[in-house]
Amino acid sequence: MAMLAQPRSARAFLSDALQHCSRMAKALRDWFQEAQREREARGRKLLTEWLSPEQWAQYEAYGFFDVTGSDTGRRYRIRHGTVANVYEVDEAGQTRAGWCFVPNGNLVAGDVVLAQKIALETDERGALAVANNLEVRAER
Amino acid sequence: MATQIVMNQRGDSRYNFDAKDAKALARAERRFKELTGMGFTAAVRTAPGEVALIRKFDPTAEETLFIPRLVGG
Question: Structure pTM?
Answer without folding.
Answer: 0.87
